[in-house]
Every structure is written in structure tokens, then in C-alpha cells.
Amino acid sequence: MAQQIAAFLYIWNSVSIWICFAYCYDFVYVDADMAKKGVDCVKIIQSFYAMMEDRIEKILVYQ
């Protein structure tokens, strides 16, 4: 079993012409030590996905 778990989530998007360039870059890193300390790693990744969904919805609304 791997000693550490890494989730790299990357979004690179140009929003629209009138906003020129708007880029979203995010990085989530979950370590095995975090899991051992009782950090809810699944919750971290789920909340990250929820945040990115909100960003994508806002981007689509402005386009």
C-alpha cells in the first residue's frame, strides 16, 4: 500500500473575452500522516470538489 495519497486537481480555464484571462489552479495534497492523525481526507477532497463546482458554475454564468 502506498505511504501517501496525493490528489492533484487542476483546472485551467479562460473565462470570457471581457474578462481577458481568468485561470483557476488548485492543488490538494493528502498525506498518510494526516489520515493517521484523524484528518478526514475524504471530506477534504469532497469539499474541494464542491468548491470547484461552484467556481465552474460562476464561470458558466458569466460567459
Quick summary:
The protein has 63 residues and is mainly α.
Shape: rod-shaped
DSSP E strands, number: 2
In helices, the fraction of residues equals 40-55%
Coarse structural class: mainly alpha
Radius of gyration: 15 Å
Number of domains: 1
Mean pLDDT: 58
Q: In order across it, which strands form the biggest sheet? A: 1-2
Largest sheet: 2 strands, antiparallel
Q: Distance between termini?
A: 44 Å
Order of helices and strands: EEHH
Percent of residues in beta strands: 5-15%
pLDDT < 50 runs, ≥5 residues: 1-25
H/I helix tally: 2
Transmembrane segments: 6-28
Keywords: Membrane, Transmembrane, Transmembrane helix
Report on this structure:
This protein is mainly alpha-helical. The chain has one domain (5-62). It has helices spanning 32-36, 41-62; strands at residues 5-7, 28-30. The protein has a two-stranded antiparallel ribbon. It is rod-shaped and about 45 Å long. The N and C termini lie far apart (44 Å). Mean pLDDT is 58; it is low at 1-25. Keywords: Membrane, Transmembrane, Transmembrane helix. The chain crosses the membrane at residues 6-28.
Provide the fold topology.
Elements: E1 5-7, E2 28-30, H1 32-36, H2 41-62
Antiparallel strand pairs: 1-2
Note the main attributes of this structure.
transmembrane, disordered N terminus, 2 helices, membrane, transmembrane helix, two-stranded antiparallel ribbon, single chain, 43% helix, 63 residues
